[in-house]
Amino acid sequence: MLLKEKLSALIPQEREALKEIKALADKKVDEVKCGQVIGGMRGCKVLVCDTSYLDPYEGIRFRGYTIPEVQKLLPKPGENDEPYPLGLWWLLLTGEIPTKEEVLSLEEEFKKYAYLPQYVIDVLRAMPADSHPMAMFSTAIVAMERESQFRKRYDEGMTKAEMWEPMLEDSIRLLARLPLIAAYIYRRKYKEDVHIPADPNEDWGGNFAHMMGVENPEYKNLMRLYLILHSDHESGNVSAHTGHLVASALSDVYYAISAAMDGLAGPLHGLANQECLKWILNLMDHFGGRTPTKEEIEKYAWDTLNSGRVIPGYGHAVLRKTDPRYTAQREFALKYLPDDPIFKTVSNIYEVVPEVLKQHGKAKNPWPNVDAHSGVLQYYYGVREFDFYTVLFGVSRALGITAQIIWDRALGYPIERPKSVTRQMFKELAENA
Ligand code: CMX
Q1: Does domain 108-266+394-410 have CATH number 3.60.20.10?
Q2: 110, 171, 275, 300 - which has most CB atoms within 10 Å?
Q3: ipTM given for this complex
């Protein structure tokens, strides 16, 4: 496999490079303030992640490339299409923009594992009809743990240096199936349990759109874009950090990604896309289904804040400007659905809410994040079941987390184990500092 060959060549160099950092073991890299610990470790530099970096004012760079650069440089199925999401996975893993041939080799490798075993279907069907799609998604993933090559090789006594190989194998097998699992959940829950077989001629991203049942080339493009945008956001966010933490105990990819999905399912993280479209549609309903004026949006936003709720899709723990993932989706909307009334509402909200949040004076970042725009695009193409939206996010996020944890094993990072002290000890530490 071309990707494995590339990684086999890269890993020894990167292990050597890590030795230089290990030699600096006693050097200070950060000072941690009391407020940071009590405040969810905000801003503490305690994680290392090479797949992407999130600059507060510039937004995400995947291996140094901005979103517009990635859109321009990664190979595409056709001239006017968005890139292959698996090209991004190659980039995250290797740091290099792949050739089309390299991406197509990965597409072929994925196709070998792109089937849904009957036992996974049975597990999903056994879950009560009102189970949340994210609970179903996470359950299906962990159910497949029995197939882990990593666990098998661990039981056979593989060395630490070999661990990245079965991690890569498991990741490919899992990622190959995620769109099938997600589409199965979608069609079981919302489309009368009628399922659409994979199309062997489609790429990983296009096939996902096809199996969801939206036969529209624009939606396939949207899906490719979506899968790229939501993939990686360095490693401190809840889902990526959970994946890293769980995998640090040498739990395999199935355990790590299932746990990561449980974190993504929280309304302050990935579930915000579901909450956000709900907020927008409630806002429109409140004004008789029409696009509300900016004054009306302002009042509605204040009502939300005054009732003690957050405005979903706005704010971020790291970002301090409009999320470039929001901007990329806005550009897609301007191209394909400029006159859609919900998109117009999203645009008006963008002109009003940052000012409201500034006046409100609490949120450190009044600007929109990725979740403020993703729902309207799905809704436009007919995917209108909000509680499914986080599953779409999850399929994409698994690209980033698997890339991160394959490298965790390649570099032999240890089990994560920070120190906790009692609240009293912590107070004394701060008082005596
Ligand atoms: N609406 C109202 N209040 C907000 C707010 C928003 N959109 N964003 C932040 N605040 C509030 C916080 O709740 C906090 O209030 P308290 O002091 O009463 O607890 C205060 O402003 C300070 O928060 P912060 O330091 O600016 O933000 P945090 O790093 O604590 O939280 C986030 C970041 C994303 C959880 C928060 O902005 C939020 O709840 N946003 C809405 C939900 C959302 O869009 N989440 C998706 C994020 C992207 C993703 O992970 O998918």
Answers
A1: no
A2: 171
A3: 0.98
